Each structure stands twice: as C-alpha cells, then as structure tokens.
Amino acid sequence: MNYFVFALLAALMFGLAPVFSKIGLEGLNPGVALTIRSSVITMIMLIWVMFNGGAEALSEAGPRGWFFLALDGISAALLGQLF
C-alpha cells in the first residue's frame, strides 16, 4: 500500500471517531466513557508492543522519560477530554 491509501484511511478513522464517541456517550458519564476508552486502547497497545518485541524496551525508558510521557498523557488525554 502506498502513503496515499494510509492517509485516506487515517482521515476516515479520525472522521469516524467522534461519531463513535457521541454514540457511546449516550446516557453515560463522560468520566466513565474516558475510562473505558483509555482501558481498551491501553490493552490494544500493550498487546501490540508485546507481539512486536518491544516489551523489554519499556524498561529502557528512564524515569525522566516516564515522567514526561505521563505528563503528556495527563494533559492531552485526561485534561483535554474532560475540560
């Protein structure tokens, strides 16, 4: 596949994601929805990393890397979604 096809698929997924979110949020607390969303993507990413041989690389990240990546997650995912 070429890059144009990947760009189209990415645009399609980024366009569909808010639709899925609106449907999933119906009658649900946004904090619960964010927890479900984050848990699912965390599991998917952990499985993907393990199958691609990157599990040992998790221990290679130093405390500074973990700290700033955690800040990134807090600011982008948590604060950006809730406020």
UniProtKB/TrEMBL annotation:
Residues covered by the EamA domain: 5-83
Transmembrane segment boundaries: 31-53, 65-82
Keyword NADP: no
GO terms for cellular component: membrane
A Pfam family per the record: EamA
Keywords, comma-separated and alphabetical: Membrane, Transmembrane, Transmembrane helix
Protein name: EamA domain-containing protein
Taxonomic classification: Archaea, Methanobacteriati, Methanobacteriota, Methanomada group, Methanobacteria
Species this protein is from: Methanothermobacter thermautotrophicus (strain ATCC 29096 / DSM 1053 / JCM 10044 / NBRC 100330 / Delta H)
Top-level taxonomic group: Archaea
Entry-linked InterPro entries: EamA_dom (IPR000620)
